[in-house]
Amino acid sequence: MIIKKIFLIIFLSSVSFSNERFNDAQIIVMLKEYFKGTPNAPALLGHRFYQNRNNRVIQLEIDTNLEEINESLLFSFKAMSLITNVANKRFSQGILVLHTGTNNQPVIAETDIKCAQQFFIYEDMGEKKWRKNCLSMKHN
């Protein structure tokens, strides 16, 4: 099981820089395995790919707690960045719905995918710049 998890993480990291592209069904399998196979990952509740005007959107819903919301946000947007980088259809926007308990309204976070990839994959910007220029958050 641990070998499978390590393989998946190495695979996603190496594929991010290759020219190979994957369809939506393959992307979903990799996404589920990435969340399931990574220690301390938030619970992936759902995913959705859709077209919104001229934007192809990837939306993830996760379950986390308030103490780990920042780590869950970073983990999930990194997963989006890696996955969208190897998708055969280009995504332009990422939406993350963070559920933090039964009595709380979810937090909605959005990012431009290219901008997120500059931080999470290519490391062309730091976290502070990504948060300032690329991330927006709101309560539903």
Keywords:
140 residues, alpha+beta, Diaminopimelate Epimerase, Chain A, domain 1, 5-stranded mixed β-sheet, 5 helices, 26% strand, globular
Explained architecture:
With 140 residues, this protein is α+β, with helices and mostly antiparallel strands. The chain has a single domain, classed as Diaminopimelate Epimerase, Chain A, domain 1, CATH 3.10.310. The protein has 5 helices and 5 strands; from the N terminus they run ααββαββααβ. A 5-stranded mixed beta sheet has the order 1-2-3-4-5. Helix 1 (2-15) packs across helix 2 (24-37) and helix 4 (113-120) runs antiparallel to helix 5. The protein is globular, with a radius of gyration of 14 Å. It starts with a helix and ends with a strand. The model has no long low-confidence stretch (mean pLDDT 88).
